[in-house]
Structures are given as structure tokens and as C-alpha cells.
Amino acid sequence: MSEYQYYEFRALDRPLDRKAMDDLRKLSSRAEITPTSFTNTYHYGDFRGKPADLMDRYFDAFLYVANWGTRDLSFRLPEGALDLEAARAYEAEDVLEVREGKGFLVVDLHWNIEGGDGGWIEGEEFMPDLLPVRDLLLRGDLRPLYITWLSGLFENDEAEDRPEPPVPPGLKKLPPELEALAEFFRVDPLLLKAAAEASAGEAPAGPLRAELVRWISKLPADEKGDYLVRPVADGEDVALRAELLARHRKEHGPKTKAEAGPRRMVSELFAARDALEGKKRRAEEKARAAHLDAVARRGEAAWSEVTDRIMARNAEGYDLAVALLVDLRDLAARSGDLEGFRSRLDGLRKAHRGKSAFIGRLDDRLRG
Fold it and tell me: Taking the CB of the first residue and of the last residue of the chain, which one, N or C, has fewer CB atoms within 10 A?
């Protein structure tokens, strides 16, 4: 399998100037560079720059995907956008780090699995769905950090004997960007569902405009003057927004820290996941049994439908015929008459041996 690496940086709060773009060009002659982005794909060789340095100097978001199983996602935020102490409760080695810079902080998220990604990937598809995660972080939402922490859990690991970090509110109902984050970092959906059982309340949302107007109107005049000047004089519109929202949260809530309460051990999370998996499996088995009962009640009509579907001589007909044959095989296995099924199937194969598209589908589904 050939090597694949994808790098994408985004400048969101302020565009790159000409000097910055020239400096970035020195790092790569093939990269696509615009005032708001830097992207490059490698099938051999490697990027000469250091993503952490570029995030500190130029960019607000970074995504990296390699087909050997590494995925990175970083967001740069204005200082104070997140409660640093609360955010660092989710840090985990080689999974999540919150680091401070001069006037900013960077949230680094990392995922890696040995043996590769399990198939071909295209890094370009991910960033549009993941960029809104930064907006959640700017609102003080800690769910992205908890979800990333979950992605680093593996069974039979020493981490099973450790407690989980605080469970943030709003895990039971995720917006599309957090669903995309969980998928990007391959979080087990049932593990996430089990974790969400301890998540109480709604996720933090930004205050309404009218509420902000009332609050700002009551601030001291010198503070309001400073807030008015900074976006114009210093270009701090995004930083100012983050600062104001953080201050409003601190004074009026809702609290973004997870509620203090009993912490589950990681082993308990896996046990809860296993219980959900068992429940799901039993429900699927019950539904399957009911479906086979319905097929059994049809008797010979089911075999007649198989022939009718095959004689349609099209892809849809072949697919429906094979699906029904799978049902008939499972029904025969349940009743202990697999030999009778195989005999009828052999006759069907001989009658339609010239229909290669059908035979190919049949072999794929019934192999073994």
C-alpha cells in the first residue's frame, strides 16, 4: 500500500499576510497556499515544517491524516476561551494536550491505531465537518475533550484502573460536528452511549444578543470603552468575543464544568458498553427470528419469488433474490434441514449458471 499523508491548516481569525505566505512557501514548493489556508498531500517524503510551530505563529486549525493510522486535530483559541484547569482534566498522553502560548492556547487532539486505517482515505473530506468544533470550544464546551479522551481507551489497558474525567453536560444529544469528531477519532458508538448515561443537562450555549446587551450596558464605562477600541486598534475581535463570553459564563453561567459526582472507572465504562452491546445483540436476534418466522409462513412462495427475481435479469432483482436465499438458508439451519436447502440451491445454480452477475452475488453472500 502506498504512503499517504495529508496536511491542512486554516487561518480563521486573521488572514495570512504576504510575508507569512512567502515563509510558508519555503517549507513546501507544492503546497496550496491562500491567505486563509495551507494544504499539502504527500505520497513520499515528508513535510519540513513543524505543525505546532505553525499553529503558534499563523493558524487556528490543523488537521493531519496518514494512512498508517495517525490522525491529528488542533485548534488555537484566544487566551481565556477555555477554563484551563477544567480542560486539562481531560489530558491524556498521546491523546490530548492543552498547551499555552503568548495570548493563546492550543488544544491538540491525537489518535493512532497500529496497522493502518483499514482502507483508503481522503484527508480533504474531514475539515469542513470538524471546523465547527472550534466554535464549541470558544463557547467553553468541554464535550470535544471528553469525546477525544474516550477515543484513547482500549480494553485490557492499564487505563482501565483509572477514573474517567468529569462528564460534561450534553453528551446524550450531539450536534453534527461532535458526531463527526467521534467518527474521525473512531470512538466506539456504544462506548460513547454508555459514557453519556452519566451526562446530565444541556450543553452550554452562548447567551442571547439581548442578554449580552443588558449585561454589557451595566459594565463600567472604562471597560466598555476598552472593549470598543480593541477590535479597531488591535484587531482583537475574535479574542474579545472569547473573553466576553468567558466572562459572561463566569458571572452568569451556565457552568461549563461537569457536575461533581461519583467518577466511574474506565473498566466500568467498558462493562456498561458490553451491557449495551448485549442488549443490542438480543434485540437484533429477536428481530431476525421474527423475520425468519415471516419467511417460513410463506412456504413455497418464497422459493417462487427467488426465481421471479432472478428472471428479472437486473441488479436489483439479483440482490433481492440473494437476500431471500440467505433468509432461506438461515431458516433451514434453524430447522435442521441444511441438506435440503443445499440440494435446492444446487438446482438453482444449474438452472441459472449462465447468469454470471447473479452467480457472483450468490457466491459472495453464501460463501462457506
Answer: C
